Amino acid sequence: xxxxxxxxxxxxxxxxxxxxxxxxxxxxxxxxxxxxxxxxxxxxxxxxxxxxxxxxxxxxxxxxxxxxxxxxxxxxxxxxxxxxxxxxxxxxxxxxxxxxxxxxxxxxxxxxxxxxxxxxxxxxxxxxxxxxxxxxxxxxxxxxxxxxxxxxxxxxxxxxxxxxxxxxxxxxxxxxxxxxxxxxxxxxxxxxxxxxxxxxxxxxxxxxxxxxxxxxxxxxxxxxxxxxxxxxxxxxxxxxxxxxxxxxxxxxxxxxxxxxxxxxxxxxxxxxxxxxxxxxxxxxxxxxxxxxxxxxxxxxxxxxxxxxxxxxxxxxxxxxxxxxxxxxxxxxxxxxxxxxxxxxxxxxxxxxxxxxxxxxxxxxxxxxxxxxxxxxxxxxxxxxxxxxxxxxxxxxxxxxxxxxxxxxxxxxxxxxxxxxxxxxxxxxxxxxxxxxxxxxxxxxxxxxxxxxxxxxxxxxxxxxxxxxxxxxxxxxxxxxxxxxxxxxxxxxxxxxxxxxxxxxxxxxxxxxxxxxxxxxxxxxxxxxxxxxxxxxxxxxxxxxxxxxxxxxxxxxxxxxxxxxxxxxxxxxxxxxxxxxxxxxxxxxxxxxxxxxxxxxxxxxxxxxxxxxxxxxxxxxxxxxxxxxxxxxxxxxxxxxxxxxxxxxxxxxxxxxxxxxxxxxxxxxxxxxxxxxxxxxxxxxxxxxxxxxxxxxxxxxxxxxxxxxxxxxxxxxxxxxxxxxxxxxxxxxxxxxxxxxxxxxxxxxxxxxxxxxxxxxxxxxxxxxxxxxxxxxxxxxxxxxxxxxxxxxxxxxxxxxxxxxxxxxxxxxxxxxxxxxxxxxxxxxxxxxxxxxxxxxxxxxxxxxxxxxxxxxxxxxxxxxxxxxxxxxxxxxxxxxxxxxxxxxxxxxxxxxxxxxxxxxxxxxxxxxxxxxxxxxxxxxxxxxxxxxxxxxxxxxxxxxxxxxxxxxxxxxxxxxxxxxxxxxxxxxxxxxxxxxxxxxxxxxxxxxxxxxxxxxxxxxxxxxxxxxxxxxxxxxxxxxxxxxxxxxxxxxxxxxxxx
RNA sequence: GGGCGUGUAGCUCAGUUGGUUAGAGCGCAUCCCUGAUAAGGAUGAGGUCACAGGUUCGACUCCUGUCACGCCCA
Length: 1043
Hints:
The model has no long low-confidence stretch (mean pLDDT 87). The protein has 38 helices and 38 strands. By secondary structure, the chain is α+β, with helices and mostly antiparallel strands. The strands form twelve sheets. A six-stranded mixed beta sheet has the order 10-8-9-6-5-13. It has a four-stranded antiparallel beta sheet with strand order 4-3-14-16. A four-stranded antiparallel beta sheet has the order 19-18-21-20. A hairpin with a 2-residue loop joins strand 33 and strand 34. The structure holds one RNA strand.
């Protein structure tokens, strides 16, 4: 006996039970153990920041990261799945700052880096429990016990090793980075922090003339515009856009010659009469022109004081020529660095001018604006002066304006790796392909050196110790052992507050660690090595299992994890770090906007799971374009739909099986291998097809395509196989056919569980648990994925069935059209097809058609002329290339071919047609024959198949129709009375003569269908009788249970 | 501003190497069936395939441009 299925099933509750079962039986661990000696399928988990609760993006990625490993495990691989936690970086620092009430870097330093870092450490695990709960609830199998944390000492030690490898390759260098800087706090801020306090301010906006040297016009000057006059003493270049149009003009009032962008003329002159255009230039033509330094503090600076070109220049404001002070602007820095202009920074830590600029020494930079403007005016260099109101970032803590300036930074040289990275990327299989071939490849082709240092606290430290006397003298540490050896101290923790205390004394020199920590992307990119503590441990295992077979993350990781993995694996091993990658798109709210806690525009994930179940949510997400990097508008209705559309029908099929198997006492031991019934062979073939389709798609990592065939299969199973086979399970005699039916449905349901197991692990398990025998593995997930599909497929039979289904569909359409309800039997149906072979195929399945459409006989034939007319249509695909431009003329000719001509062509003859004086021979391949039902007949035509219904009714048919009507009403009454399916009854009825005759003529049928021991004309018992309407005849019926 | 992607029915999405009647589900309407019952089935209405050009005998599909949206970068 199978376990009875409760009449009301709650999928979420069922899932909770399965989670409990897996926990008790330790199924995940078992699934690993049974594969221990098999080939590894290597999966890397990209570590999430656990600074909040998981959202749909995580659930989606988690589902993908579950399905593929589950599938690969069932395909016979050992798939270890270690969860990863990203512990370092700003998100967690922000939480710690909040908890400690510290508003910025100086406050942290003041409170003590040790206090702060320990706070971070204690908070990392804050959400771990919730994460584990949700991830587990989604059905994801992942190892939380052997997880890796980026803050673990072994992990951090490997980070040092990775860094040292780059160092050895001379790939690490120090340069600058332009960052927002708080002069009040003496510290750089992250761009993230700077973005949180914008204020509207007024700044001076001045236009300055820069005297051009050796220009074709005398006394000519380029005009530049700036809102930061204090950066002008540090001006080292000016920049024009290469494609922007510039003009040299003569100011009619001052007779001076100015160069500026043509598009900006109107900003400086109200009328065209005020100037004369001398000549036009492209920005590229101005490139290289020298000019006289605005101030002479740095007049000797290398390569300086020339016009440069860059695309960043716009003509939206200013003059179209941009002043460059490389120490104070990101573009300035980048462009000047490319050309080899060393930066100058005459400000001290407080942003006060130093002696390098003696005129303004001691003045705070912004306060010097006035004096600088005055000096410019004095020197005749100021052309225009105004003020501008704009929004500008301020320091959160001190409410003082931030200064963008060059900060010391560490870089990894990446630009020379571009070609190797591109080559390595070619061997990666991306899903979808364009992300790798276009998006990622483009990004690699233009890769910039990677800034890996952060002026923060909670992170892996840059393992470089610098000679306090000579900053160019540095020692790179590659292991704990080495640091202990050089410092003579025991090293227990690699965080900043520990290692900063460690000094190295060597040859009488003292070395102190550089204060920066590493970008946490450096850690995620090092994860393949660091999670294994490579090369300190697991050396062989790592090397045998690198790169990973599979990773999966969101599209936003193109420049994140995917990139850093590629940079480091290319630098260290000249290989990609992963062979296959699935890129998912973003999950949006139903309104197409980002999900927002504030707007509450999305349903809480937990609520959705508890309402519809994780399987439904998994299916919904996977069966959508979001697994192909497109965005998904998540809708609760969609989740509901996947439940109703796939899970419920599947469950109903299973429930049907259990109900009848238990009634008949059928058990798997009674299973037989024979399949005499074509329906049985057909559904097994369908299952085999499903198996093939899913395997194909999964091997391509195409998840959406893996789910799609389930829809068709569930349809086949429920709406054709079971519906058409129900009677085989109901019939009372326990014959061979019935046993085969049970055997088939059992096999199919069991097979379906296995194929669906990676996608819907819960319902698959639930059904499996009830179906499995003692000799089968304890869990569906411990099975091998079915792969014997080829043997079970019968494509001929599948084709036959498709035609039968088409015939039935046409019959249904005709019944609907002629308002003949299915309970009314019809005498005859015509199925006509001039393809005898095809017809023969259908004929085999005659009973399916007659049964389904409730017709007494099906007449098969090859001559459709009585039912339909035929017409020829051109076969465009065939004729198009043959006729070319004559095609249009040929269409009406072919449409009007006579029946005789069509018959001749289809008989294999060729028929000549006149086209523009040319004769064209039409062959059977050139035309398609279309059949049109004759008017006034119940006929339908589709392709080669013509179906006709005999709509004539006689007394006999009407009587049978009434009997069926009678059965239907009685069955409804049984249900209303809540009778057991197997309960026997007695029927008493009273009605007119026609009904009486109908009932008595079909008494056996009625009693058989309704499980009645008697069905007799009886006096009406007013108490227990129900008044029925049988096709217009009234009838009183009373039903009583018969022992 | 740049790279990539997306735009097909009211909604969510399919649509094979270009072939003339562009499909499915949901929703809606009408009907059917009900011993699978949180069911199931059929039929119908609903589309200038974002827009504009081009290539072609023929374009949802290929090319160019425009617009809208998304992701990343600047």
